[in-house]
Design goal:
The protein is of the alpha/beta class. The protein contains 18 helices and 18 strands. Helix 8 crosses helix 15, helix 10 runs antiparallel to helix 11 and helix 17 packs antiparallel against helix 18. The structure holds xanthosine-5'-monophosphate.
């Protein structure tokens, strides 16, 4: 399949470049910026994008691509650092700016330079993608999105500046003879006017990549791949109730013989309301034959008894999870040759050290329980990760295609330790029930009011505080509940959702009227950083 290879120099928006291009049907692969350009990396490649970076090209240890990138003959698009990298690598000069160019910045195209590019040439095809394309002879300008502290002090020989920022710095470059292009701004960011069309012009019109990346095609590729790797062996998948593992389960059922597929789900008692029933109904409906539901609520609650420290709670849950998993998998009595499937996504792979920033890796690592079972299967080469080439939005499309309910497909993320990290202090069955009821009302109301899909993650938190109130004429001593709703791109940073006050007040009243143990509701207005999304 045709693809665009993205060399990742560590920019926070590298993933976005991949996602944007996939949105119009061209497959993208992100590889570390300094990776050797082997045949595998280049197989099917129609063009290369050099990403942005937190580094400056003149920094010691700044990432440098395999020099072969410049001799493949493939079209190259340098974005921000990528452009500076190309400039520095070909005899130009990059210097710090007196002041960063940041946010929306007007970029004006030099129409004389633009019209000098021969009709039908790669440069003409590229520039036709810019906002206001076709209006030759007039000034063409648009608001690009920028974030850079360096600029090109001297262009490399052969490069022509065809666009300039409002502050007078080079913003768009083409090359006299080669299909090489450079942008000092970020077309992948949604705030960049016309950014999508610029990337589309590069991928489709300049590189000629065929838009053949569809979820139907992905299913067929997974089917072929599993037929080869797994054959007739059984496959075991642990289902968490989240989108990824549920879609992974559906994909296995679709691409393997359903009799080969064993799905295991642990009801820890720390799940959301009716979660176990909803997940098992969905999986049964799409053909699960071996769905093993493990009811282990009592074990989890007794392991959590008396624990109030967040880290101790997490540890207790993680340890118990592993031991029950080992015990139950052994009880299934699968032959040694079985494969273990995981719902790893493309972004997880990149974050786990194969590309993007190490910081992302460190923050996320505490979320993943390192299980001896997974390690043993990994060492035996028997892990399969059928979603590992997909972004989250693609997983959702795939889930819909496979017939999973919209409610699950669009579900907000839910932490592995479940409600235990949303009940501050000691976790008890009673508190789980109170929180489950309150959270259920909150989420149902968000859906009914059409707010759920505007929010990245919403949930309720039960605080270890009771406060005084009145119910009728009687004084009441009820628990305090916090509501949280945030918007985010990937959970690494988050902004508070600007909740319409009317909805917030009505939801709060509904909760205190319905869940009798809750006396007071508060709304959490902290962004991340400095707060985290969860409270523990
Ligand atoms: P924080 O609270 O770290 O959360 O800002 C970022 C995102 O990660 C989720 N989260 C977890 N997910 N196991 C998980 O699978 C965990 O232990 C865990 N802790 C937090 C959180 O819900 C948010 O989406």
């Amino acid at each position: 399949m045709d693809k665009i290879v993205i060399l990742d120099f560590g920019s926070q928006t590298t993933q976005l470049i991949g996602r944007r291009i996939r949105e119009f049907g061209v497959y993208t692969d992100i590889v570390p910026g300094d990776a050797p350009l082997t045949c595998t990396v280049l197989d099917g490649a129609k063009g290369i994008i050099l990403s942005g970076s937190p580094s400056s090209v003149y920094d010691e240890g700044a990432p440098v691509p395999d020099p072969a990138v410049y001799t493949t003959g493939l079209p190259i698009l340098g974005i921000c650092y990528g452009l500076q990298r190309m400039t520095a690598d070909h005899g130009g000069r990059v210097e710090p700016l007196p002041e960063r160019e940041y946010g929306g910045v007007k970029v004006t195209l030099d129409m004389a330079a633009v019209s000098s590019s021969t009709a039908g040439s790669p440069a003409a095809a590229f520039l036709a993608g810019f906002p206001g394309g076709g209006a030759s002879g007039q000034e063409r300008s648009f608001t690009a999105w920028m974030s850079h502290g360096d600029s090109l002090a001297k262009l490399a020989p052969g490069f022509i500046q065809v666009g300039t920022s409002a502050h007078g710095f080079p913003a768009v470059l083409i090359h006299e003879t080669k299909p090489w292009f450079g942008l000092q701004f970020h077309p992948e960011v949604t705030h960049c006017e016309g950014g999508r069309e610029i990337l589309r012009a590069f991928a489709l019109d300049v590189c000629g990549a065929a838009p053949e990346w569809t979820m139907e095609r992905y299913i067929e590729e997974v089917r072929e791949n599993l037929a080869q790797r797994v054959g007739k062996n059984p496959v075991l998948l642990l289902i968490s109730g989240g989108v990824d593992s549920t879609v992974a389960g559906a994909l296995l059922l679709k691409t393997l013989d359903p009799d080969q597929v064993h799905l295991m789900y642990m009801d820890t008692g720390l799940m959301r309301k009716n979660e176990t029933e909803i997940v098992s109904a969905n999986l049964s409906r799409i053909g699960a034959r071996h769905l093993h539901i493990i009811h282990c609520e009592k074990e989890f609650l007794s392991a959590l008894k008396g624990l109030t420290d967040p880290e101790e709670k997490r540890r207790a849950i993680g340890d118990l999870f592993i031991s029950i998993q080992e015990r139950e998998v052994a009880r299934l009595g699968l032959p040694e040759s079985y494969f273990l499937a995981q719902g790893t996504l493309y972004t997880d792979l990149i974050e786990s050290g194969k590309g993007v920033g190490k910081k992302a890796h460190v923050i996320k690592s505490h979320h993943n329980v390192r299980s001896p079972l997974v390690e043993a299967k990994r060492n035996a080469g028997r892990i399969i990760e059928p979603l590992d080439r997909l972004y989250k939005d693609e997983v959702r499309s795939l889930g819909r295609l496979l017939g999973i309910d919209e409610d699950i497909v669009m579900r907000h993320p839910f932490p592995g330790p479940g409600l235990a990290v949303r009940i501050l202090g000691e976790v008890t069955r009673e508190k789980c029930d109170i929180l489950r009821d309150a959270d259920d009302i909150y989420i149902r109301e968000l859906k009914r009011r059409g707010l759920y899909d505007q929010i990245w993650q919403a949930f309720a938190v039960l605080l270890p505080i009771r406060s005084v109130g009145v119910a009728g004429d009687v004084r009441k001593y009820g628990w305090v509940l916090a509501l949280r709703a945030i918007v985010s791109e990937d959970g690494m940073t988050a902004d508070v959702y600007p909740f319409p006050m009317k909805d917030l007040l009505e939801i709060s009243t509904l909760i205190t009227n319905t869940v009798k143990d809750i006396g007071r509701v508060t709304y959490d207005i902290s962004s991340k950083p400095p707060a985290t999304i969860e409270w523990e």
